[in-house]
Amino acid sequence: MSAAMDTESTYSGYSHYSGHSKKAHRQGRDRHKSPRSKDGSRSEKSVTIQTPPAEPLLGNDASRAEEGQDDNWGETTTAITGTSEHSISQEDIARISKDLEDSVGLDCKRYLGLTVAAVLGLLVFLTPIAFILLPQILWRDDLEPCGTVCEGLFISVAFKLLILLIGTWALFFRQPKADLPRVFVFRALLLVLIFLFVFSYWLFYGVRILDSKDTNYQGIVQYAVSLVDALLFIHYLAIVLLELRQLQPMFTVKVVRSTDGESRYYSLGHLSIQRAALVVLENYYRDFTVYNPALLTASKSRAAKHMAGLKVYNVDGPGNNASGQSRAMIAAAARRRDSSHNELYYEEADHERRVRKRRARLVVAVEEAFTHIKRLQAEEQQKAPGEMMDPREAAQAIFPSMARALQKYLRTTRQQQYHSMESILQHLSFCITNNMTPKAFLERYLNPGPTLQYDRDRWFSKQWTLVSEEAVTSGLQDGVVFVLKCLDFSLVVNVKKIPFIKLSEEFIDPKSHKFVLRLQSETSV
């Protein structure tokens, strides 16, 4: 980014940074597409069509070699505005249509379960009221008068139904966090138990009360009260099975990301495999650093470069027996390649030196920009209230002074695809509004944060697939291994049971700590 770049070109639509011309811009876009054609595994990934998000600050060319850039890069760059171009293959379109069909099936299954639960809940709450009202409607003249005890039971039924309604709302009517592949076994068992319970009560009510037209109205009300009491006990059972049973830690799971080997440990209680996978994913978005495929590209290219240096030629022709010479040549080439660790060492050292250098430049540039903000705030206090600058305008005013240093640092650390220009401006205005320091502003960019810190368009992991040899509705057991797969990587989860701890007590006699100090005085003779 040049020093003469004005504010309008800085905050224009989807910005692509080029060297000197539109031809270089098209070549950069071709380089951006090239890794997908070279790597076969990358070409098989699915594509999701969404509204185009804001372009990253430095473009999305993650495969461009940073090693080839010097410290003076960006002095003559030009900002070219325009609309981005995206292309997808016929295979991607077919995969997208399949994903849409799967999502429609998941939505139907979820709404079907919610509908069944809502209908059953409505039946449960209306049943005690119907038990009390039906005799009043059908044979009111034949009923015995309701005394004081009977009228008191009306108040009991009303308050118990209110308590049951609040408890049911708090336990069951919550926003679902995920779509699980199988039904929740305990919840399904509770629904079946409630249905059988209410059906048996209706069956007894129809045979013994409706058919015989029982005139003991107080007994009928007492029957409805017993139903409500039983429903309260079932609600208590649901709390124990759905909430309290899983609180005590029983297993320790190790979660390893397949691409870079980052791992975490978590403690879980008695859960099914699918619900344990849900807990793992919730903790993944919070604890694991964001997945950055650009960091893996450099290591793959380095390994390919080392393997490409090994060449064997058979100069004697296919008919001659030159296997001994071939083995000797391979051994000699392998000995020459043993020095590759030195290249790796110096390459990593040079990268760390370049990161530290550009980090220092970024810190200095941000501190100077925030110092300028303080001067502007001091000047704004002397102006009229209507002429004061809002945080968004202040962020746009100081952003060009730090943009070049931030640009080069993000490219060096390969984070440019996670930070768009608009997100940086929003974060900068947020820091200015809350009077935060330069170190607080840089915390997001100096250290890669968890996945939740970034926009959903940069996550690389939105839809997961659970792979397990055991049934996903079965409970966790010692030694169970299951895999959570997404588009570009997977999480391997290994379950270990917390060992039984035997703790013994050893008694120490308090008198054993006492001692007597005897002093022998020496006198001169």
TrEMBL record:
Transmembrane intervals: 111-133, 153-172, 184-204, 224-244
Record's compositionally biased regions (Basic residues) = 19-35
A GO cellular component entry from the record: plasma membrane
Compartments, as annotated in UniProt? Cell membrane
Composition bias type Basic and acidic residues, residue spans: 36-45
Q: Which InterPro entries match?
A: VANGL
Arranged from A to Z, the UniProt key words for this protein are: Cell membrane, Membrane, Transmembrane, Transmembrane helix
Superkingdom of origin organism: Eukaryota
Q: Membrane topology type, per the record?
A: Multi-pass membrane protein
One Pfam family assigned to this protein is Strabismus
Entry keyword annotation includes Transit peptide: no
Keyword Transmembrane assigned to the entry: answer is yes
Q: Where is this region: Disordered?
A: 1-86
Biased-composition ranges, Polar residues, are: 74-86
Family under the similarity heading: Belongs to the Vang family.
Q: What is this protein called?
A: VANG1 protein
Question: Which species does the entry assign this protein to?
Answer: Melospiza melodia (Song sparrow)
Per the UniProt record, the lineage of the source organism begins with: Eukaryota, Metazoa, Chordata, Craniata, Vertebrata
Q: Which gene encodes it?
A: Vangl1
